[in-house]
Amino acid sequence: MDPISAAASVFGVIGAIASVTSAATTFMRDMRAARKEMVAIKKELSALRVVLEILAEDFHDPSNTNLPDSVLQQVVGVAGECRRVVGGIGDCIRVSQERSGFTWARSGRAEIQKLQADLEVQKSILSVTLDLVSV
Q1: Domain enclosing residue 48, as ranges
Q2: What pLDDT was estimated at residue 17?
Q3: By the 8 A CB rule, do 49 and 14 touch?
Q4: Are 45 and 24 in contact (CB under 8 A)?
């Protein structure tokens, strides 16, 4: 696997993050009860985006063409998992927007908190990988 393919996976997640961040902002404005969780989600998405952008830049660096295949495959795998979690956040926001505030309080809040924890784990894995690539 080449670094450019890994970078393409990373850019896909960055695009998904932009879309979900926008939805979270709208939802936060519409549903006051969700502000705390949406602020936390937006912070986590922003931090993940920074890590992904740095990785993408590193993959385009000609001096990193000899990265081990295992590292590139790990990044692609984690990027796929990030995309799944970011998509889940977007789905949760959409469902909560379509339903009442009661639905948010009953299930949306717990779902978002679980997805946020999942996102944090994936960001941590990518941060460690970034440290590896930087060495």
Answers
A1: 3-134
A2: 97
A3: yes
A4: yes
Cα(3)–Cα(56) distance, rounded to whole angstroms? 9
Q: Please give the Cα distance from 104 to 63 (Å, whole number).
A: 48
Tell me the whole-structure pTM to 2 decimals.
0.89
| Domain count within the chain | 1
With both helix axes pointing from N to C terminus, report the angle between 3-30 and 35-60 in degrees, rounded to the nearest 10. Answer: 160
Give me the amino acid identity at 117. Answer: A
Rounded alpha-carbon distances, angstroms, from residue 7 to 1, 42, 98, 109: 11, 23, 35, 32
Question: What sign has the CA pseudo-torsion 12, 18, 20, 21?
Answer: positive
Q: Which helix (H) or strand (E) holds 63?
A: none
Identify the segments of the chain with pLDDT beneath 50: none
| Residues 93-97: contacts with CB under 8 Å, at least 24 apart | 93/20, 93/23, 93/24, 93/27, 94/23, 96/27, 96/31, 96/34, 97/23, 97/26, 97/27, 97/30, 97/31
